[in-house]
């Protein structure tokens, strides 16, 4: 696997591309001279965790013929204060799925992802405690980011 980063400005803004060719922007916070032109690197780790587990869960539930109408994930984390590097110490992943889903199948799919299949979780478990929970809603497909 290879990714390439190209500096966009004279500060901290980079454009990154992987094998998919999709461009992702990374930037530092305004407090250090960034311009909010991209996600912070530590945010991207949490996004990777959510995305990795989502792909696993969708694959597992599709194989079980479960219909997912909506799927949102909220990842929250605390970092170790006052340390350099300041690693994540506690991470919580909250899955919100909508549709005619079997609760037991959803729970099993989430557990399989978080405990066995998600490579990002496996990496983060080495330095963090990761907890997870889920809720089922009756939601139908809406706009991205809409929580039902």
Automatic annotation (TrEMBL):
Q: Which InterPro entries match?
A: KH_dom-like_a/b, OsmC/Ohr_fam, OsmC/Ohrsf
**Which Pfam families does this chain map to?**
OsmC
- Keyword Oxidoreductase listed? The answer is yes
**Keywords in alphabetical order:** Oxidoreductase, Peroxidase
Name this protein carries in UniProt: OsmC family protein
Q: Show the PANTHER family listed in the entry.
A: PROTEIN YHFA (PTHR34352:SF1)
Parts of the chain that traverse the membrane? none
Q: Which organism is it from?
A: Pontibacter toksunensis
Please state the Enzyme Commission number of this protein: 1.11.1.-
Does the UniProt entry include the keyword Oxidoreductase?
yes
Which molecular-function annotations from GO does this UniProt entry contain? peroxidase activity
